[in-house]
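Hi, here's the filled form for the chain we discussed.

Project: internal
Contact: R.S.
Residues: 391
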Amino acid sequence: MDDRVHTSTRSFGETPPGFGAAGRDLRIDVCRGIALWWIFLDHVPNNIGSWLTPRNYGFCDAAEIFMFVSGVTCALAYGRAREREGWSGMIGRSLRRGWDIYAAFLLLTLACAILVYLAGSNELADESNTRILLEHPGATLAHAAILQYRPVNTDVLPVFVIFHVLFAPLLWLLLRAPNVTLGASLLLYALVHVFGWRVPAWPNGVWFFNPLAWQLLIVLGAWCVIEGEKFRPWVMSRPALVFAVIYLIFGLVLAQSWSIEPLVPQTLTDLLAPPDKSNLSPMRLLHFVALAIVALRFIPRNWEGLSTPVLNCAKCCGQNSLPIYCFGVLLALASQLTMLDPSEGLAMQIVVSVAGVLMMIVVARILNAISIKREWKSAGTQSIGKVPPVR
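And the returned structure, exactly as it came back:
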């Protein structure tokens, strides 16, 4: 191992700098919480609240942020678990988390079907892709069990199931050869765009989030934890910031041309059609990278704004990402019912957007309170029968 190139390999006994960082980086939970709010606002159709999300101001949206941050959190959580419990403990944790997401996906699928059935709306059944579940429950649930069927807005959960189950070998490769692993991920991403590789699904034949393409953001997030410090000077450099700002301005102008009125020649607008989300278009990927560079430059780890009430609420939602995401999907589906139809007027759209985000915050606060109470009970149970230490 000593004969290997230092920049591309890492000894298993060596702790990556990201694993040993003191304290929890609040930016991770805040970014994930804000991304959850944005995802909910984007999922509500005809919603004025979606103009608060990055979808209308560039090529990427909250999905890229959520996927990348998930790669970061997986690397931190499972990397530290490997240090404390070894590979067997780390694998057990990743498999249990994958099972939790799998169970949440199946329960969310059933909840969507029940909500649509109670609503009695054929149009909602078509829009939510649950008509086939209501008409053919046996076959549909069987395909859902093998992650081939998904109601609308639940597509990201099967992708996370796969990534959590496979994260142990990914972490092994990243710790052994981080740059080679990232290069292999980039190669797979390129081959997807060259040959159109996809994972089969049912009944429409394709996954909305093609895991063969979106794996790049997961790998990139984990790679940043393990190897990113070596490239931090380049990311924080002035040329990188200039590139990022220019590309963000370009994305803003083009996005406004697609959604409002042409700001650039029509030939250019037609040539650069809205980038493909299913396969993570390179334009979307570069836009996310530009956003990340700007965010890292102007939002340091110890930024005081992270402790403001609004961002504290976002942090709370980010700490409970799985249940809050599922809750947001149900809220977006409920907003399409007749009594909460946001297309009825601007006032209703605002009410739905604000009420939905507030309900997500309340649920996250309740979940945090329950978690703290369980920790107290657990600590109290473990302390029973112990002799107080002599001071």
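Let me know if anything looks off before we file it.
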